[in-house]
Amino acid sequence: MTDVQLYLAIGLPVFAFLLNIALGVIQTNALQARITSVENSMNSRFASAESNTNARFTSLESNMNARLTSLESNMNARLSGLETRFDTLTDKVVDIDNRLTRVEERLLHS
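-> structure tokens emitted (110 positions)
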């Protein structure tokens, strides 16, 4: 066996092993870069979805507050009208009671 054959027999597998390690590192770095890119993309998508959802809930909340305020004022107006009618009805019942009392007194004295 010559010196060149010995060097090739020892050096070629070592070179192939080192080349394999170097390519593995390069591939790992490329994969890491892709994962980072996907992670950044997903983070931006989630942030966009979160801000969109927050805006929609804020809009819904303000809409519901306006509707509840409108309903409250409507109910207050209706209850106020009912109170007025009830007071009028109570006054009429008192008037009828007073008249009936006077009629009873007249009937008793006659």
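The chain has a mean pLDDT of 94.
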